[in-house]
Amino acid sequence: MELHISLEGTRDLGGQLYRQLAEAIRAGRLADGQQLPPSRLLASQLGLSRKTVSDVYDKLGYEQLLVGRVGVGSFVQAPHASPQRRHASTRLASGERLARWNATPRPLVQGPRSAFARYAFIGGRATPALFPHDEWRRCVQHALRQDRQERGNYGPVEGLAVLRAAIARHAAFSRGIHCTPDQVLVTNGAQQALALLAQTLLEPGDTVAVEEPGYPMARQLFASLGMRVVGIEVDEDGMMVDQIPDGTKLIYATPAHQFPLGMPMSMACRHALLERARNLGAIIIEDDYDSAFRYEGRPTDALQSMDRYGIVAHVGSFSKTMLPELRMGYVVLPEALVQAVQTVKYLTDWHTPTLGQLALAKFIDDGHLLRHIRRCHDVYAGRRERLQHWFNGPLAPWFRLVPATAGFHVAALAQAPLDIDLLLRRARQADVGLQSIAPFYHGTPRHQGLYLGYGAIETLDIDAALAIVHGILREMAPPA
């Protein structure tokens, strides 16, 4: 790669070269220790004499911005203190919009693992130790061999055919999804699927109905695109369908495991939701984020399997079943939406990286995904049992668990008014990481309580953590 130097005219060429190199070194654009081209090569590239370049190198060396190594070359020696970066003072026409983005909170952003408490009930995160790394490594190696045949070409917008077929089979087997591979669109996680659907279906000012409480990133996404976002309360059956206003064009719901409270949507509510959406001409986004883990009762198929009108877009993610850093998800689209959503994805990022797609297809087809889900299911079931023991026993005077049959998080609602923020602070001081359900409400929270993820905490640590919480609660609010 050539060093970028731009010389103008024919005067003071050596001075121009010196100033550009010195500025690049002081600004950090040329990194400390980076080797510069030999003087003969740079002179040839710039059309200068070798002596001119050598003199510039000597001057930079005198100022201790370059260091020469005999027989090796010239290397950048960055100054100890870098000057302050110059900031543009121009008033930007988009300043107000930038300010709104800068003020937008990021409620579910998680820091590095080192920042977590020792006992952390983190939502949406699995235990990396449970992941079959050896099997995944072999799938990646297989993908590298396969990818060699198509290297240098862009992939299909909708995703590789081998992965879409694997997803269609897996979704049919595990969730009762009715679709062809042509209806499957591979995405960079579930969040991209939500964005693509919103961009495809809505104009600024259109009405979107979301659950309240609900997934804050979905609400923020829709609002950021200029939509009118209406929160629909949930009860023990799920979304209260009669609150969905006329004119709604998009409905976002989590039927299998309501986020964050955890209860499943009843069959009566599912039928009512489908009828309401049909009457409105609205599309339902079914976010099926962690329903692969089911612990009791008869399996409930996805809402999409009940759809007779072509109005449910089923969004799935491999972040919960595998690893979040893979950023792999998908959406099963109603046939009427397929071409339009593909076009929006094409304009957004063209396609999802093909290497990961090939590896994931192999991982699914070889049965590794189902075996991994079963292995995690057994571990999560044990952790869920320990949570139930504590909240149905020692912690029952303060909290009650919301019944949940799937996923790997639960919500515990306060039985009486309680200073949840104080509880969180005191628990954190004792190295226990808890989270309130309050941030999942857009308006005033109807309930106080805790959101407890158990995917990333070891089973034996749950007893130690909740024993600490029990002691804090006895001091804060002694039971009658």
Short description:
It contains 14 helices and 15 strands. The chain is α/β, with parallel strands linked by helices and 480 residues long.
Q: Mind sketching the topology for me?
A:
Elements lengths: L12 H15 L11 H8 L3 H13 L3 E4 L3 E4 L18 H9 L15 E2 L12 H15 L13 H15 L8 E4 L1 H13 L5 E6 L3 H9 L3 E8 L2 E2 L8 E6 L13 H14 L2 E5 L24 E6 L11 E4 L5 H11 L5 H12 L2 H24 L7 E3 L7 E6 L5 H10 L2 E2 L15 E5 L5 H18 L4
Parallel strand pairs: 3-14, 5-6, 5-8, 8-9, 9-10
Antiparallel strand pairs: 1-2, 4-11, 6-7, 10-11, 12-13, 13-15
Explain this structure to me?
The protein has helices spanning 13-27, 39-46, 50-62, 95-103, 133-147, 161-175, 189-201, 216-224, 267-280, 338-348, 354-365, 368-391, 420-429, 459-476; strands at 66-69, 73-76, 119-120, 184-187, 207-212, 228-235, 238-239, 248-253, 283-287, 312-317, 329-332, 399-401, 409-414, 432-433, 449-453. It is an alpha/beta fold and 480 residues long. A hairpin with a 7-residue loop joins strand 12 (399-401) and strand 13 (409-414). The strands form 4 sheets. Strands 4-11-10-9-8-5-6-7 form an 8-stranded mixed sheet, sandwiched between helices. Strands 12-13-15 form a 3-stranded antiparallel sheet, with helices on one face. It has a two-stranded antiparallel sheet with strand order 1-2. The relative contact order is 0.12. The protein starts with 12 loop residues before the first helix and ends with a helix. It is built from 14 helices and 15 strands. The chain folds into 3 domains: 13-76, Arc Repressor Mutant, subunit A (Orthogonal Bundle); 113-127 and 371-476, Aspartate Aminotransferase, domain 1 (Alpha-Beta Complex); 149-366, Type I PLP-dependent aspartate aminotransferase-like (Major domain) (Aspartate Aminotransferase, domain 2), CATH 3.40.640. The mean pLDDT is 91. Helix 1 packs across helix 3 and helix 12 (368-391) runs parallel beside helix 14.
